[in-house]
Specification:
The structure is a single chain. The model has no long low-confidence stretch (mean pLDDT 80). It is built from 4 helices and 4 strands; from the N terminus they run αββββααα. Helix 1 packs antiparallel against helix 3. 40% of the residues lie in helices and 10% in strands. 17% of the residues are buried. By secondary structure, the chain is mostly helical. The protein is globular. It has one domain: Transferase(Phosphotransferase), domain 1 (Orthogonal Bundle). The protein has a two-stranded antiparallel ribbon. This is Protein kinase domain-containing protein. It comes from Selaginella moellendorffii (Spikemoss). GO terms for molecular function: ATP binding; protein kinase activity.
Length: 124
Amino acid sequence: MEKKLTEVMFQLLNTLKHLHSHGLTHLDVKPNKIYIQNCVYKIGNLGLANRIDGTISIKDGNLRYLRMELINDDHSHLDKSDMFSLGATFYELARYSPPPASRTLYQAIYQGKLALLPGFSLAF
């Protein structure tokens, strides 16, 4: 399973790299925005996409996948918000359950203070 998740992660990271290289950010990366076609994984539904350097107002989106700075109206480094959301997405895919909604557990994710995922190697 690690090998497959790693493959998917690299494909989606390349998707975000391409989007960011064009000055855009997705702002709504989560599992139901990931599509597969011919063994190629893609991030779709660009409804909240915006310019990386733009000012935005987040009215939609799932707080479980949003970077804390974005929730607090800090719109600098919007590309990092996509990376945080992708990380939360992979956390969900690896655990078969969504990221925690409680503020305490959310802060643990944000600060990188999570226990290792059961059944996965330290390298993963």
